[in-house]
Each structure stands twice: as structure tokens, then as C-alpha cells.
Amino acid sequence: MKIGIIGAGNIGGTLARKLVAKGHTVKIANSKGPETIAGLAREVGATAVLADEAVNDVEAVILSIPFGTYPKLADLFKDVPASVVVIDSSNYYPFRDGAIAEVDAGKPESVWVSEQLGRPVTKAWNAGLAATLADKGQPAGEAGRIALPVAGDEATAKAIAMKLVEETGFDAVDAGGLEASWRQQPGTPAYCTDLTTAELAAALQAADRSRAAENRDNLIKQFSETGKMPSHDEAIALNRAVTA
Questions:
Q1: Which of 65, 134, 138, 152 is the most exposed place for a label (fewest CB within 10 A)?
Q2: Measured between alpha carbons, how far is 214 from 5 in angstroms, rounded to an integer?
């Protein structure tokens, strides 16, 4: 596939590397210009471009940007064909993104994203830590393979997103429509807990919408109080403990 990625941080860069390795043609963009990510692009085998080039002549676009910046992308998709799959991998953190009243009132994050862009999105890759996405992928069929949820309303777009998730080394679990994507947002048992397919399916069902935001903020507080970056295993363990 021809894939555009907007966002060249830990998540966007990792996805570019893995998707190129699977034979996809990848263009990657950031907010600072292609010259600032030329080295990354060469390293992973992608092409560094401007954002408007990343959505041109592609079959799928992966968005991996800070949640609060989505309104800035509205004009970018005006002329992008409806057949292009748009995948949202972001998460809302008020301390970083600023308070967004509609999301704070309960609107699922990716529903809000779709409204900012003026087109449907599919939610994927948001529920894995950067280190999980970079280092924990395994071949299909491997025992204990980590699963990631994928939510969306359009069957074809969701199927494409799920196939791409599988190609990055994870079992893809259909998490329902976009309105149900709150079940994979921060503060839920499915978020950054490194579960197998069966475990993830159970975690999605066990999610408590009334507790999710409080859990999210409690986790941020606990992480900040340690005074150091937690290890991958420590982060997974704390997410599991708080959201259980």
C-alpha cells in the first residue's frame, strides 16, 4: 500500500519502520518540515515530505500527533478522496493538550477527531506504549502475542487498519464502532496493558466509562510522583493495577 504518516515521533517513526519492512511505500511528515526528519526517513526507508504531500496519492493515512493539534489539520483533508483510510493513533491528555469540553463531557476521542477532520477515522495503535509497539511485536500465531484494539464504523477501513496492525506484529481485535472506542482510551483496562487476544476482549467488555478519566489522571499523578520515568514493565503493571 501507499501510506502517509503525519507525526514522526516515537509512534509515527516506529510504524513507518515496520510498515516499510512489510513492503509498503511510506511517506512521513511532521510539523517542522521534511528536512528535520530526513535522517529518520533514510533510516527506516520512508520518504520525508510536507504534510499535504503525505495525504496525496496514498491509500491510507496514519495520524500520530498530539491530540490537541487535530483542528489544525481540517483543511488538509478537504480534497483527499473518501476512499483513503484515515487512522487515528492519538490519545487525549488534558495536562498536555488543554481541556477539550466535549471530550471531557464524554464524547469518545476519535469521534471528536473525526469531527475536526470532517471525515470518518478508524482508531488503532493508540492502546500500546511506544516501547510495546517498537519492541514487543511477534509473528502471527506466536504464543502470548500482544493484541491491540481497532475501532471504526466503516468495514473496509477497519479491515485495512486491522491488517496493518497485524503486520506491525500484533493481533488485531475488533473493538466495535467509533462510539465504542472509549473502551480503548486512557484509563481503561485495554489501554497500555499488553494483553493477549482473549484478555483484551475481556478488558474491552470490563471497561467502566465512569472511571476512565479518573483512572487516567490518577495514573499520570502516580507516574509523576515517582520522579523518574517508569520502565516499560513498571508502566504496564501500574496501568493494570489502576484500571482493574
A1: 138
A2: 31
Share of the chain above pLDDT 70, in %: 100
Residue 33 CB partners (closer than 8 Å, separation 6+): 50
Residue 61 lies in a domain: no
Nine cell digits for residue 70: 487535530
Assign 227 a pLDDT band (cuts: 50, 70, 90). Answer: confident
Residues facing 173 on adjacent strands: 149
Q: How many of the other CB atoms lie within 10 Å of CB of 151? A: 30
Question: How far apart are alpha carbons 31 and 238 in whole angstroms?
Answer: 32
231: DSSP letter: P
Mean pLDDT of the chain: 97
Q: State pTM to two decimals.
A: 0.96
| E strand map for 96-170 | 122-123, 147-150
Name the 3-class secondary structure at 182. Answer: helix
Structural domain count, the chain = 1
pLDDT of residue 226: 82
Residue 6 located in a structural domain = no
> Which structural domain range is residue 73 located in?
66-175
CA 31 to chain centre: 18
In a domain, residue 243? The reply is: no
Q: Is residue 41 part of a domain?
A: no
| CB 214, CB 185: distance < 8 Å | no
Q: Residue 230: exposed, middle, or buried by beta-carbon count in 10 A (0-12, 13-18, 19+)?
A: middle
pLDDT tens string 140-198: 999 999 999 999 999 999 999 999 999 999 999 999 999 999 999 999 999 999 999 99
